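Data availability (excerpt). The following record was deposited with the supplementary files.
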Amino acid sequence: MRLRSRGGRKVMLYWPNIIGYIRIILVFAAWAVHQSPAAFVPLYTLASILDGVDGWLARKLGQTSMFGAWLDVLVDNLSRSMLWSLLFQWGWLVSTLEWCVFVCNHSTRGPDWKSSFSRSPRLIRAIMANGNQLVIGT
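Predicted structure:
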């Protein structure tokens, strides 16, 4: 992946990417206080809400980038990995599978990974329909 696409290093300071960095801080803060649901839930919820805001803002400001797409999925996986690991003893297994899918898809399909499932099995196509924005994808 090239970080220098569309604006060089400036892309790292796009507002949606700054929101991504804030999400990383929120996820680690939630993990640090995971023993206290009163602290954990608001931090994790805010990180999840910001997940929708960064994509909307990227499109609104015209600040979409390969780096931003990669960062968004990275933070999503980091967030879910932490949650899976805290909720279930075998959560590491689900997390590992998600990371493998992330690495394989981004290395072969790049930023278009969400729209490249036309030859996948029917269930996968249903989950990924409309860029994974349907209820079944959630």
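Summary of structural features: The first helix runs from residue 15 to 32.
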